[in-house]
Design goal:
The structure is a single chain. The chain is mostly beta strands. It has one domain. Helices cover 0% and strands 47% of the residues. The protein contains no helices and ten strands. The strands form two sheets. Strands 1, 4, 5, 6, 8 and 10 form a six-stranded antiparallel β-sheet that branches. A four-stranded antiparallel β-sheet has the order 7-3-2-9, with no helix packed on it.
């Protein structure tokens, strides 16, 4: 992923967990050197949202219709993205499912 421009951008990253629960979820960006570990169990088919602007983690058990704050067990900094370079995002924890992200330029 390469966002446009050269200014930092905030990012929202949504994990749509598959059919197996996982003990923790980590999101890292090698370009920024930032990583966040959410040290909680993500249940099967639940969604998890990382927001780098607010440094908030939310969980949804109903396909994103309703979200609950879940910052307990959060260690590190939820990464944003850097413009003009390739941002390598690494997600560890879920073994099945999908993810989606959006980013907005600061300024």
């Amino acid at each position: 992923m390469t966002p446009g421009g050269t200014r930092p951008a905030d990012m929202t990253f949504i994990v749509k967990n598959g059919g197996a629960s996982c003990a923790s979820v980590q999101l890292a960006n090698a370009a920024t050197g930032q990583a966040a570990l959410w040290n909680n169990t993500l249940a099967a088919d639940d969604w998890l949202r990382f927001d780098s602007e607010t440094q908030r983690v939310d969980v949804s058990g109903d396909d994103g219709a309703n979200w609950s704050k879940s910052n307990g067990g959060l260690v590190g900094t939820i990464p944003g993205v850097v413009g003009g370079v390739s941002n390598v995002l690494t997600l560890t924890g879920p073994t099945t499912g999908t993810y989606d992200y959006t980013f907005t330029a600061k300024g």
